């Protein structure tokens, strides 16, 4: 979608300032917006009128109070559109349709027969009308589609530069799907998309510096510095699973040896546990969870080792980047304290200062919602950052209506 105005112009900056204030704090009157942002009342009136014209803002109801007629609040028009999020996994796609605050309105999971780009584009294109039919919102238009997948992504061009898991090089997935469905499509690394959603509407909302750790089929991290997602020079920042854990150790999917994820991504954890207990290939996460619940010593030992191994490296990351919080997501979150206990102890032991809080995200569909957040972020011109409109701590509670998380 083309955004109005040059991003660098004062007008574009004012738009972003106002939209981010309303995202963080809920409905506000024009006078309120002016006093919090420091913009002139005339500038606020002008920008708000523009945003209402575009359907991005909506006027609330005037509340008659004892002090007479009170000013009309304006709010972000989250109901104005729908977003679709696709999270591509190894054998399936998690699909979600949300409003523009990424609240899920419908979801489904589709199997993937393979990783051929044309097959995937067809699968996604056919899912679009099906997802739209799950939602009963006459008049709401599909604002866009976000796709998240593991890999090195050029998010400006919506091209997957390299994905080890899909064995892709330079696949213009975003453009291929947009061609079929005729709506804007955005593509992002899955952990980055997840971090954007956490920053806009989730556990990272009040933090300008945060790390997001994902432990699932791989191990990844996303870094938000001063409110901006840090992508690195080549879009390859945050490949935390590929830090060297054992010199010349196990072969990793990236072709190198001894990477952290070759030991402690979920498939590796399950393998180690099966080897330790003589269980067959059929024993997966549910069986390991049952073993943990039953207090099986081997299961606890495997998670202890994983938590400790990941935690030690996470401590290095903390020592280098100094995040306010670490949000953790991914399938391995379900291992709970068996994993997080040793992970927190390893952090405690190895960080230079007291470690930041580790916040597991228990929401089921946060990952697909992360993909949908790519749409919201672009449509509303949100920064991942709190921007200049960061509320002071005493403004953070009470009056605002935040889009609910589920
Ligand atoms: Zn690797």
Automatic annotation (TrEMBL):
InterPro entries named in the record: ArsR-like_HTH (IPR011991), ATPase_NBD (IPR043129), ROK (IPR000600), ROK_cs (IPR049874), WH-like_DNA-bd_sf (IPR036388), WH_DNA-bd_sf (IPR036390)
Region of interest (Disordered), residue spans: 384-406
CDD domains hit by this protein: ASKHA_ATPase_ROK_CYANR (cd24073), HTH_ARSR (cd00090)
Start-end of Basic and acidic residues biased regions: 397-406
Keyword Metal-binding among record annotations: no
Keywords, in A-Z order: Kinase, Transferase
SUPFAM superfamilies linked: Actin-like ATPase domain (SSF53067), Winged helix' DNA-binding domain (SSF46785)
GO molecular function: kinase activity
Pfam families listed in its UniProt record: HTH_24, ROK
The organism's place on the tree of life at top rank: Bacteria
Xref: PANTHER family: BIFUNCTIONAL UDP-N-ACETYLGLUCOSAMINE 2-EPIMERASE_N-ACETYLMANNOSAMINE KINASE (PTHR18964:SF149), ROK (REPRESSOR, ORF, KINASE) FAMILY (PTHR18964)
Sequence similarity: Belongs to the ROK (NagC/XylR) family.
Protein name: NBD/HSP70 family sugar kinase/biotin operon repressor
UniProt source species: Rhizobium herbae
Lineage of the species this protein comes from: Bacteria, Pseudomonadati, Pseudomonadota, Alphaproteobacteria, Hyphomicrobiales
């Amino acid at each position: 979608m083309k955004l109005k105005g040059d991003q660098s112009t004062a007008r574009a900056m004012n738009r972003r300032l106002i939209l981010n204030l309303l995202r963080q704090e809920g409905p506000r009157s024009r006078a309120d917006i002016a006093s919090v942002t420091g913009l002139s009342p005339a500038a606020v009136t002008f920008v708000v009128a523009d945003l209402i014209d575009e359907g991005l803002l909506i006027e609330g109801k005037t509340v008659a109070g004892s002090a007479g007629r009170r000013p009309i609040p304006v709010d972000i028009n989250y109901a104005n559109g729908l977003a679709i999020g696709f999270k591509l996994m190894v054998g399936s796609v998690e699909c979600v349709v949300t409003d523009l605050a990424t609240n899920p309105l419908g979801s489904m999971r589709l199997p993937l027969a393979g990783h051929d780009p044309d097959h995937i584009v067809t699968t996604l294109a056919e899912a679009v009308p099906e997802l739209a039919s799950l939602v009963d919102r006459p008049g709401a238009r599909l604002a866009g589609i976000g796709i998240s997948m593991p890999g090195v992504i050029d998010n400006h061009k919506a091209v997957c530069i390299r994905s080890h898991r899909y064995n892709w090089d330079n696949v213009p997935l975003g453009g291929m799907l947009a061609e079929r469905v005729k709506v804007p499509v955005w593509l992002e690394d899955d952990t980055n998309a997840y971090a954007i959603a956490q920053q806009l509407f989730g556990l990272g909302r009040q933090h300008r510096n945060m790390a997001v750790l994902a432990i699932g089929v791989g191990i990844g991290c996303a870094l938000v510095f001063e409110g901006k997602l840090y992508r690195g020079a080549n879009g390859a920042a945050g490949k935390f699973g590929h830090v060297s854990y054992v010199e010349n150790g196990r072969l990793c999917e990236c072709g190198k040896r001894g990477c952290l994820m070759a030991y402690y991504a979920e498939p590796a954890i399950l393998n180690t546990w099966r080897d330790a207990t003589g269980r067959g290939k059929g024993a997966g996460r549910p069986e390991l969870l049952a073993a943990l619940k039953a207090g099986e010593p081997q299961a606890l030992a495997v998670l202890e080792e994983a938590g400790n191994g990941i935690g030690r490296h996470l401590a290095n990351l903390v020592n280098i980047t100094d995040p306010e919080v670490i949000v953790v997501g991914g399938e391995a979150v379900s291992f709970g304290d068996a994993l997080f206990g040793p992970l927190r102890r390893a952090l405690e032991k190895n960080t230079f200062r007291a470690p930041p809080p580790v916040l597991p995200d228990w929401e089921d569909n946060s990952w697909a919602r992360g993909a949908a957040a790519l749409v919201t972020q672009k449509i509303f011109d949100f920064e991942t950052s709190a921007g200049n409109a960061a509320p002071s701590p005493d403004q953070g509670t009470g009056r605002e209506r935040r889009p609910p998380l589920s």
